[in-house]
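Deliverable D2.4 — example input (structure tokens):
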């Protein structure tokens, strides 16, 4: 039975909300020892974007600090004081972008969620892995709260402080287990790759990710989706609201499929009954009208060709040899995953497996023989390794996957 963790050891610290208070935190953490536990609370589903509304830190000798990044939006001084110090985060990819916005950028990282995945833990949420590894039960009731609320309730602050209370102890336990199982170098390579990955470029045509857009069957209706999505995004940004609180995706799709011409037709739609949707009804109607008036050449294409291979279910018909390679590659990754107790997607990204199987590197022969060699599966291990590096695979992954993959493909 896990022991409930109800209170931070030193109590809940006051929220740092001024330059003077932040300077004291910087001095204290610069004088602390060992890794620094870091966490951030956002207001996903409430506010526009993914900015942090509370940042939690904990370090031996410094205790816990709760920083309001709205009042203290520049943490570069803290970042400089911790240069070279390992920062411990859980699911680092979720928090690193919002931490970078305020100038907090790790130079050394330990991701406890990713460590748990490499160690084969079936549940790697912070509460689950703390309970499994350390035997403590964390309260997780405020994870989806609106952290833009001011002032923050005391029980929310307690929850936030507890999120970093045991993070360094968890890191130490997982580090020891990684070392014991021979997986530490894998983890260190993964952590370095996270830090080396540049920020994601803005997605092209983000409106195409509208939930339910597959129901929209023609280009004119797609134009309505685009106009509504862009209108909603502008309003959401101006009002600092999550786009879904301005107009839900289901309403965008329904408006696109029905293309109302009058306010009465628009308000008669079931998804337009909410107060948020009705508040900007004139903006939605104008967006629909603009899309209806676009010339044919201004309509979006129904499908945008991707830069990757076609859907796997079409391979057997289009390229049977590629389909055979994909089946063999997936079998290799699945077998290794079971043997090493590492999730298949962490052992090799599914997209890399598909791309490699669809367009394998040429085999050891050159010229016209290279193509036939690749088609028959005779691809050298060196060529496979180079191809996987080009697809972003790490050396530990390449070392594990390439030898059995080269053997499997040579037998096709």
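Example output (designed residues):
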């Amino acid at each position: 039975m896990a022991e409930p963790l109800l209170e931070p050891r030193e109590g809940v610290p006051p929220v740092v909300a001024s330059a003077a208070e932040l300077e004291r935190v910087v001095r204290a953490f610069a004088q602390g020892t060992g890794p620094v536990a870091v966490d951030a609370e956002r207001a996903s589903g409430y506010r526009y974007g993914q900015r942090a509304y509370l940042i939690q830190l904990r370090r031996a000798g410094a205790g816990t600090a709760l920083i309001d990044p709205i009042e203290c939006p520049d943490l570069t001084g803290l970042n400089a004081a911790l240069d070279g110090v390992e920062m411990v985060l859980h699911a680092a990819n979720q928090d690193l972008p919002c931490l970078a916005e305020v100038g907090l950028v790790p130079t050394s990282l330990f991701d406890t969620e990713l460590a748990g995945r490499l160690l084969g833990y079936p549940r790697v949420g912070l509460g689950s892995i703390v309970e499994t590894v350390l035997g403590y039960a964390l309260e997780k009731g405020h994870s989806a709260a609106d952290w833009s609320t001011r002032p923050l309730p005391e029980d929310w602050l307690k929850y936030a402080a507890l999120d970093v209370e045991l993070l360094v102890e968890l890191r130490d336990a997982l580090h020891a287990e990684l070392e014991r199982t021979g997986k530490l170098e894998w983890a260190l390579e993964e952590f370095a790759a996270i830090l080396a990955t540049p920020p994601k470029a803005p997605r092209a045509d983000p409106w195409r990710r509208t939930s339910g857009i597959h129901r929209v069957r023609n280009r004119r209706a797609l134009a309505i989706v685009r106009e509504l999505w862009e209108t909603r995004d502008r309003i959401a940004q101006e009002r600092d609201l999550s786009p879904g609180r301005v107009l839900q995706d289901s309403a965008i799709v329904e408006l696109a499929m029905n293309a109302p011409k009058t306010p009465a037709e628009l308000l008669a739609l079931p998804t337009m009954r909410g107060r948020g949707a009705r508040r900007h009804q004139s903006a939605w109607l104008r967006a629909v009208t603009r899309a209806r008036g676009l010339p044919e050449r201004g309509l979006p294409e129904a499908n945008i060709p991707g830069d990757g291979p076609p859907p796997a279910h079409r391979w057997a018909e289009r390229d049977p040899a590629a389909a055979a390679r994909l089946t063999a590659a997936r079998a290799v990754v699945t077998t290794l995953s079971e043997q090493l107790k590492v999730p298949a997607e962490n052992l090799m990204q599914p997209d890399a497996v598909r791309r490699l199987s669809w367009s394998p590197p040429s085999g050891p022969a050159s010229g016209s023989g290279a193509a036939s060699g690749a088609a028959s599966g005779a691809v050298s291990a060196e060529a496979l390794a180079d191809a996987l590096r080009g697809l972003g695979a790490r050396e530990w992954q390449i070392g594990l996957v390439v030898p059995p993959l080269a053997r499997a493909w040579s037998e096709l």
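The chain has a mean pLDDT of 94.
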